[in-house]
Amino acid sequence: xxxxxxxxxxxxxxxxxxxxxxxxxxxxxxxxxxxxxxxxxxxxxxxxxxxxxxxxxxxxxxxxxxxxxxxxxxxxxxxxxxxxxxxxxxxxxxxxxxxxxxxxxxxxxxxxxxxxxxxxxxxxxxxxxxxxxxxxxxxxxxxxxxxxxxxxxxxxxxxxxxxxxxxxxxxxxxxxxxxxxxxxxxxxxxxxxxxxxxxxxxxxxxxxxxxxxxxxxxxxxxxxxxxxxxxxxxxxxxxxxxxxxxxxxxxxxxxxxxxxxxxxxxxxxxxxxxxxxxxxxxxxxxxxxxxxxxxxxxxxxxxxxxxxxxxxxxxxxxxxxxxxxxxxxxxxxxxxxxxxxxxxxxxxxxxxxxxxxxxxxxxxxxxxxxxxxxxxxxxxx
Length: 381
Hints:
By secondary structure, the protein is mainly alpha-helical. It has one domain. Helices cover 75% and strands 0% of the residues. It has helices spanning 10-23, 28-42, 48-59, 65-108, 115-140, 144-158, 163-178, 210-223, 231-242, 248-260, 268-307, 311-339, 343-358, 363-380. Helix 3 crosses helix 12 (311-339) and helix 4 (65-108) packs antiparallel against helix 11 (268-307). The chain is globular. The N and C termini lie far apart (49 Å).
């Protein structure tokens, strides 16, 4: 898988993922599109097939999928040290920015406006996701059976099917189709990826210490499947309805803070931890919610290469990869409907797509340009 783990200096890893942590807006699909462009196309760390295997496997895990892809990429370059560096560099900027918003929220009672920023950035992110779907899809849908599976998964995703169900169904059906063609007695090899068991949550009505806070967010890190946005439902169930630690308006403000900052939406934990227990609470909640991902992403990085050696396990992963690209396409459609709302956003999205596909412009510059244009248009508008 690219260079062997442990052969690459951590410097190239922290430079890439710190930059992505500062500029990767738009949710998991956009983050993965940026990583594919940087790790596969620009740096040649691995092939698209290897990258798709990481994406597919990480999508089967609970927790923030794009963060786990970042960690698995770090592992592929420099082993466990690379995983740690990639994960911290991708998570830290979002957590610090979200924490700054939490401080401003507590001090001034509201969040700073970031609508102009998102107005310009989101059309660029739609273009980045579309470009990733185009490039990865050519590999994921290399057989007509996989293309048909991808089309079915795309329709299911648009109809509202749970992403984890779509992934497992596609993988299982592709495995069954391959079963008759596998040699008799062939070992399945690695049949699936290990899932961590959920931790018990605190039962207190309020946060009386940091341990209950740690346990609640650790549990969220091992039970939240889907995407960062699925996290909202779990947060409401635990923090608002069951424990009564925060109110619904506070939760919505915390989620907004996670959305207007780059990096993983799971950085919302820093905002909530600060509301509940100040600076220490922010640190504890952030560490707890991301901690399981470091372990699981390391296992993906270590096992992904072995999965391809088993015909049946490889068939399962092919189906998962097709479903993962189909889910990215569904996200692009959904985000496009919500984002491309006027002439300016359509123009920005189309120009960004042309620059990415035709001239291979660095996506970071497009994101920064979109942010500047969005702020300018909101100011003059």
